[in-house]
């Protein structure tokens, strides 16, 4: 089982790293790393309007690991392969010459993580707010899979709704599943402090990470956003399967039926029954209830020229509008 010790920030992180990044404050600590807000003195010297960035270093437990620097590099390299508005932007990777500590710098995200948003919506988010978030998250993940990158640790705490948009981050348990990316070092899942309640059954059984396992995890996150609670009462897939929780799964109130069909399939414990994909789930969330209506009903509700084609641009503007509403109300 993964380590259950509570995460702690590195005890001896220097105040100035790489002769360039001055630590301002701790932003968060996860199972593997600690993330700080830092001032980039070089940016500041050239009057860059945004001199603060995020800096991720490994926590003491992982920093002591023989391959620690290579593992953080792998996270950086995987993230660098991705170019998507809903995936965090990595900036650079360094080894601090004085302390020997590896660190990476990243876009600074300001805003709540999805676990906060779920806690703020105990009865679930209404469809108009949920849809653009789901589309942003699923298109980020579909992009990663298209680029041959699996995430491996999808959970609400690894997604932030920043003032600049939704961002998926923390590819520390990710892996390249195609071509030379597969040769990057990988952390043994046995060592990792991953969250069992988002892990697909086959991962709990020790199998390799696959796109289908990412699909199960993202489906748990979407269900939680839509209903306010974890689909299987925060149990692991194995515990929930023993208690036959799959059969009692209820459709969250605001989710249109055709979307629910896809989401429910993505939540199947048996990977052989998980016969959908991130791309298909994305398509279902994009269309909403449109596909579920009989053609006569659909025609009645469509403007004469037909609805605008689902495009990245319309997804972006819906997400922007939902975010503006969210930040106004919080
Ligand atoms: N770029 C960022 N901007 C702001 N906060 C961040 C950023 N990256 C991570 N965090 C915060 O730090 C925490 C730990 O970061 P994460 O990359 O998830 O580390 P771990 O691999 O240990 O889980 C996150 O849960 C989040 O609260
Ligand atoms: Mg994390």
Features:
330 residues; alpha+beta; Phosphorylase Kinase, domain 1; Transferase(Phosphotransferase), domain 1; 2 domains; six-stranded antiparallel sheet; 12 helices; 10 strands; 15% strand; binds adenosine-5'-diphosphate; binds magnesium ion
Can you characterise this structure?
The protein is of the alpha+beta class and 330 residues long. The radius of gyration is 20 Å and the shape is globular. It has helices at residues 41-45, 60-63, 68-80, 114-120, 127-146, 201-204, 211-227, 237-242, 257-266, 278-287, 295-301, 312-329, and strands spanning 16-17, 21-29, 33-40, 52-58, 90-95, 102-106, 149-150, 159-162, 165-168, 175-176. Strand 5 and strand 6 form a beta hairpin. The strands form three sheets. It has a six-stranded antiparallel beta sheet with strand order 1-2-3-4-6-5. A two-stranded antiparallel sheet has the order 7-10. The model is unreliable at 292-310 (pLDDT under 50). Residues 27-33, 35, 54, 56, 88, 106-109, 113, 157-158, 169-170, 172 line the site of adenosine-5'-diphosphate.
């Amino acid at each position: 089982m993964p380590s259950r010790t509570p995460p702690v920030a590195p005890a001896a992180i220097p105040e100035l790293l790489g002769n360039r990044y001055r630590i301002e404050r701790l932003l968060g600590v996860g199972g593997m790393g600690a993330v700080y807000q830092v001032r980039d003195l070089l940016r500041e010297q050239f009057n860059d309007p945004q001199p603060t960035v995020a800096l991720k270093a490994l926590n003491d437990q992982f920093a002591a690991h023989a391959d620690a620097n290579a593992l953080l590099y792998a996270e950086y390299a995987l993230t660098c392969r991705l170019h998507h508005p809903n995936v965090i932007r990595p900036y650079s990777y360094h080894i601090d010459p004085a302390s020997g500590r590896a660190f990476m710098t990243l876009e600074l995200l300001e805003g709540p993580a999805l676990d906060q948003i779920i806690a703020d919506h105990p009865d679930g988010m209404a469809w108009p707010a949920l849809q653009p978030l789901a589309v942003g998250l699923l298109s980020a993940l579909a992009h990663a899979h298209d680029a041959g990158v699996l995430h491996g640790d999808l959970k609400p705490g690894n997604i932030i709704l920043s003032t600049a948009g939704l961002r998926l981050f923390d590819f520390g348990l990710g892996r390249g599943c195609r071509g030379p990316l597969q040769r990057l070092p990988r952390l043994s899942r046995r060592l990792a402090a991953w969250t069992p309640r988002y892990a697909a059954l086959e991962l709990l059984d020790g199998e390799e990470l696959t796109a289908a396992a990412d699909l199960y995890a993202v489906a748990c996150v979407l269900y939680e956003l839509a209903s306010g609670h974890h689909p299987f009462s925060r149990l692991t897939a194995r515990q929930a399967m023993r208690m036959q929780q799959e059969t009692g799964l209820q459709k969250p109130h605001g989710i249109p039926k055709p979307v629910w069909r896809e989401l429910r399939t993505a939540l199947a414990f048996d990977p052989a029954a998980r016969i959908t994909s991130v791309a298909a789930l994305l398509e279902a969330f994009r269309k909403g209830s449109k596909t579920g209506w009989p053609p006569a009903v659909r025609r009645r509700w469509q403007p004469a020229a037909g609805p605008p084609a689902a495009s990245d641009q319309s997804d972006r503007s819906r997400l922007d509008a939902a975010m503006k509403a969210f930040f106004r109300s919080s």
